[in-house]
Write the structure tokens for this entry.
Amino acid sequence: MAFEEQLDLSSTVHEIRTNSLKQFEALGFPTKKDEAWKYTSLAKLLKNDYSIFPKKETTTELKDVKKYFLYDIDTYKVVFIDGIYSPFLSDTTHDGIDVCLLSAALTKDKYKGTIETYFNTIAKKDDSLTALNTAFTKEGAYIYIPKSVVAEKPIQILHFSTSEQGPMLLQPRNLIVAEENAQVQIFERHQSLVPHQVLTNAVTEIFAAENAIVDYYKVQNDLDEASLIDNTYVAQKGKSHVSVHTFSFGGQLIRNNLNFYQKGEYIDSTMKGITIIGDRQHVDHYTLVDHAQPNCESHQDYKGIYADKSVGVFNGKIYVNQIAQKTNAFQKNNNILLDNTATINTKPQLEIFADDVKCSHGCTIGQLDEDALFYLRSRGIPKREAKGLLTYAFANNVLESVKIPALKLRINKLIADKLGVSIGHDL
């Protein structure tokens, strides 16, 4: 088989890969007949003849990609060009923590125990795209923070694609482990450098042990020819705090599958997102929080701003097991349609089997407040700028929980730029 010729058959995960390929062959790509994909079709994307494995290493200079980095602060970096690791652009470490390549962790004895304990243990076995990634992935980031260690710098994971290898199906895989009392902040971005067809099918597994703190930030602001399917799985133990912020500002099709599994008491899980798109762009957020133990909290807050003929989807599910008493779960999805041709499909869900809980969910779909718009225009602000200010205020409060000041500043300016509010450079 072609994929077996490309992969390391001596790897301890070879059996996992083989079983995953069989699983994908049995399931196939999801279609709109699947309830979870009711409003998102992959049919158009799958018409392309993608290359699965990079044919050669592509040279990319720092000046071509620097603006996509968090370059104004000191960070660790793991950078890939067309799926191949770029040592020139990266800054990895094994000094107290491990920030390196997943390919190394999968094949070296030094990491065998961690791989056997964590790799592919929370990723859904019945999800066809996750199975496809497990079977074909060759590279990604491996991040390991030992017990009671605080990563002294944020970590950047950046994937760039070029047109040199034609249409590509990239399948990066990240494994992130924060042991007891550990802390880490991570920033991730997938970016096409030129207009060409690229489909990224990414999988990230995050493990937070007791009292660990993990903050994960995703910026999705790609070209119109690029599409992303992001599958993120989070397993938390007692008293851990994990937050995932997703900023979706551009791309042909973006699907974010975010799954939280609470496996202890006094856990806090936070999911926040801002979507600002136009033209015919499509962004779909699909979230799950599985409350399996008592005395835990989860907070979801997603804001969407849709213009032109763009399409937004939000499907959020909170599942509270019978044992999970004293659960506090909050879910909110608020949306603004700037044009009559824009579409939003939203479906918040609660499944509660415990009787002593505090759970709420809700969604709103509307347009800009005409009274507020009139007030701003009466103060001499042109209509376009007035609309920008109102939408900017609507979206901006999600940034309050971003813990990296430099990232907060740049996303703040990016939001302003997307909405026509001039406050500085973009990201």
